[in-house]
């Protein structure tokens, strides 16, 4: 009986030791990931600041999506600069553009997309107590429109903005590939072709396949800058700043950041 009791005690102690060892390993891994995230965030912010400084020196508005390679402290990072008129402006987009967005990107049938697009227009045009149109203050406000649930918003969130006044049209040179697909009526091959021509720096990009009633040109002073910082596990850490390139005497900088976000882009794992 004594021997059996000793064996049970030894087994219990080994289980406790194993659990403690696993807990220590997990905590060490979490600390390592937190340290990597903090370092990647600082590197991404530094790369964005360098690109912003160059944009301020050039004093020339960027009219198309472009990617800048930034070497910093022995790391090579890509910073994507996107003028916000490459997104669908919730406060000025016409009903046909919103309906196309809901159909192509949102996955809704046309019979549901058209009335929902009109509901979005009705929401932003509704008058406040002061008599001004209510308008969308942030893209998240889209979920206040009846019929827009979180799943639909998640499919649209990266394609819309409430931070500019674009006149209702989209600049295809600045548009992400998913927005190009909306402008192309769902033609993914055409959107990819235009995106490839644009990324190659081609001067005259053929836009004839896009719906001419939905596109426009021009420049804005608001941009999304996104730095991609590679991390040791093969993934990337994305640092994003939404900025207004205008002098501000309050802080002395020639730009103002009005939104920031950070996220992890996991490494692609081969399928088993």
- Which structural class do you get from the secondary structure elements? alpha+beta
Q: Which strand order do you get reading across the main beta sheet?
A: 1-2-5-6-7
Please provide the count of β strands: 7
The tally of helices reads 6
**Helical coverage, percent range:** 40-55%
Percent strand equals 15-25%
> What is the 3D shape?
globular
Distance between the termini: 50 Å
- Compute the number of structural domains: 2
Largest sheet, in brief, is: 5 strands, antiparallel
Mean pLDDT: 85
Detail the poorly predicted runs: none
Radius of gyration: 24 Å
SSE succession: HEEEHHHEHHEEE
Protein name: General secretion pathway protein GspK
InterPro entries: GspK_central_sf
